[in-house]
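Re: duplicated header lines in exported C-alpha cells

Our pipeline writes sequence and C-alpha cells for each protein into one text file. With two proteins the header for the second block appears twice in some exports. Here is an export where it did not happen, for reference. First protein block:
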Amino acid sequence: HVQLVESGGGSVQTGGSLRLSCAASASASSTNCIGWFRQAPGKEREGLAAVWLLQSRPYYANSVKGRFTISQDNAKNTLYLQMSSLKPDDTAVYSCARVRGVVAVGFVDYWGQGTQVTVS
C-alpha cells in the first residue's frame, strides 16, 4: 500500500512563496515517477511537475515553469514543491501522486489527500 501525505499549504499574498512537502511511504519512494498536481475550483486537475527515479531532468507544466521547483530528499522519502511568484490563479488543492509513465491524471495510481493553497 502506497501512502502519500502532503503538508505546507496555506494562504499567501500575490508574489509570495510557499513550499509544499509530500512524505512518501517506503514503497512509494522507490517508485519510478512521483509528481505534483493541482485542482482549482471549477477546473480539471492538472499535472504540474514530476521527477523520475532514473532521469535527472524533471518535468514542468508550462503554467509553472520558471516559478515552481520540484525536488526530493531520498533519505527522508520526501518530495517538495517550491512555489514562488504566486498568483491568484495558483489557488487550488495541491496533491502529490505516484505516476505511471505520463504526468496526467489517467496515469496516477496513488494520490495524497491534498493541501489547500490560497493566493490573494
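Second protein block, exported in the same file:
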Amino acid sequence: VQLGESGGGLVQFGGSLRLSCAASGFTFSLYSMSWYRQAPGKGRELVAAISSRSVMTNYADSVKGRFTISRDNAKSTVYLQMNSLKPEDTAMYYCIRISGPFTHAVPLGSWGQGTQVTVSS
C-alpha cells in the first residue's frame, strides 16, 4: 500500500490550497478515505472523510464550510480543497483509508509521508 500526499505549502491567512493523495496497492474504490492532520505537539485529528462512492462526506467542526473532500476512483486519488485557511490549520496533512463511522473511524494500514500546510497570519 502506498499513499502519496501532495499540494501542501505556505499560504497566507484566507488563502486556499488543494491537497491530493494518490493511492495504490489496494482496491481504492472499495474503501472510505479520509484526511487527518497533525499540528506540532498535538495528536492526529480526523479532518474529513468520504465514503467509497462519494455518497457521504463528513467533516470536523473546525473545518466545516471551509474544506471539501472529494475523490476520483478512476484515478485512485482523494482530494482536499481548503479555503479560508487560518493559522490554526497549520499542520502535516495525511490521507488514509478508514473503516467505521466518522466519529469512530479506524485508520487502516500505514501512514504516508504527509504534506505540510503552513498558514501565515
